[in-house]
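quick q for whoever's on today - can somebody do inverse folding on this one?? i tried earlier but teh output was garbage lol. tokens:
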């Protein structure tokens, strides 16, 4: 699979989500920002993302996916921290 295919699956499966996927064809990392993650634990967020690519994981099309999941507020806070750290 290609990163773009995984991104499309995640964004189609999670309304109003934004996914950034990188990988080498076998191992992928996804950063997913979605309002549906509000109030969810880290594990619950990851399960929501895995649900969008479960068929590909089960049939072997997708081998390994590492997920970092954020609410929009968490993502905004992280971006602000990164931006302020880079200005020093």
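ok took a stab at it. sequence:
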């Amino acid at each position: 699979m290609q990163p773009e295919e995984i991104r499309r699956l995640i964004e189609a499966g999670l309304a109003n989500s934004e996914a950034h996927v990188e990988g080498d064809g076998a191992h992928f990392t996804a950063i997913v920002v979605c309002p549906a993650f509000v109030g969810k634990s880290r594990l619950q967020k990851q399960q929501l993302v895995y649900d969008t690519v479960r068929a590909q994981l089960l049939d072997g099309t997708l081998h390994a996916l590492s997920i970092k999941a954020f609410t929009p507020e968490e993502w905004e806070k992280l971006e602000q921290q990164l931006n302020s750290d880079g200005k020093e």
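fwiw The mean pLDDT is 94. also The chain has one domain: 3-86. so keep that in mind when u check it
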